[in-house]
Amino acid sequence: MSQEQWAVILGASSGTGASIAVEVARTRGLNVFGMHRGRYLEQAAQVEQEVASTGRRIVMHRGDAGTSEGAIQGAELLLAAAGPRSVKLFVHSLASGSVGLFVPEKGEPLHSRQLERTFTAMAHSFIYWAQALVAKDLLAPGARLLGLTNPLTESLLHNTGAITAAKAALEIYVRHLALELGPRGHRVNLLKFGTVVTPAIRHVYSPEAMARLEEAHRQMNPSGRMCTVEEVARFVSILVGEDVDWFNGATIDFTGGMTLRLLDLVLNPSR
């Protein structure tokens, strides 16, 4: 009997990470090792129940996956639970960035601690986890390592300079890791998608602001709506398959054409 394979999901308690965890357990038969910081305990418990209902194993660890220490500790726990060469899929779904301006006219600029934390959690930790997984011989043959990003690097958004820069760094890390891990049979890619509704988004935005957000996306997206976390999760499940083995070092556009109309909306707002 072949060894069971696992998916490692950072940020698995809610939102995109949670949906991916459930989807790959259901459609790909992967056990799940998830890490989260404990902010959404009820949602984390629901993820455990949904994965368990598929008949797959799940280990949810509460800790900070966005540091080098967290990556080392997580890899050690994973090795004890899953054994060597067991990780088929690794998904970096961490959102822990600071918003603010670099040189504001009023108020405090982004502090060096905020910049360092943003880059460590949203970019550097992808490298730390890749290093830890390789060091512990955890990657299964043909493993997939996947980072998640958004369109902010091509269409800037006020107050998100640090996050945007970290996502740009993540893209370069993915490309270099694709070069380093490709000869070993592994694939490293970046999946770019637009705004999706998550508990974090609903926590930040009021119902009125959410309505404006959804209307803006209705106008921007050719499909006339926002993407869903379920759609993202289904596509990630596809990326596990052998038919997409040729994807490597790629930034895969799953935005649904979100940025195509931005200039048109500015120049022709009444259309």
Automatic annotation (TrEMBL):
**Record bears the keyword Chaperone:** no
Pfam families in the record: adh_short_C2 (PF13561)
Keyword terms of this UniProt record:
Oxidoreductase
Keyword check for Ion transport, yes or no. Answer: no
Which PANTHER family does the entry link to?
A: DIHYDROANTICAPSIN 7-DEHYDROGENASE
Species of the source: Hyalangium rubrum
**Can you tell me which family this protein belongs to?**
Belongs to the short-chain dehydrogenases/reductases (SDR) family.
Task: Give the matching InterPro entries.
Answer: NAD(P)-bd_dom_sf, SDR_DHRS6-like, SDR_fam
Q: Under what name is this protein listed?
A: SDR family oxidoreductase
| Record-linked Gene3D superfamilies | NAD(P)-binding Rossmann-like Domain
